# Entry
Amino acid sequence: MSTAPTSTSRRSFLDRLAGLVVVCASGMRSRSGAQQLRSVGFQAASLSGGMAAWQRAGGEVPR
# Structure
């Protein structure tokens, strides 16, 4: 089974009308994932700089 975000088994539970933010550690993988989701009709964006940038900006990360 594919683990790509565009795999039908993975995206079947996502709401195509809701905006999605894809997140990874540095922003590189999430940018690719968001592009793949947009290519199949989702409204998706990537968190620029990933979780590292979020934490540098003072964002909280629950543990």
Notes: The two ends are 30 Å apart (CA to CA).
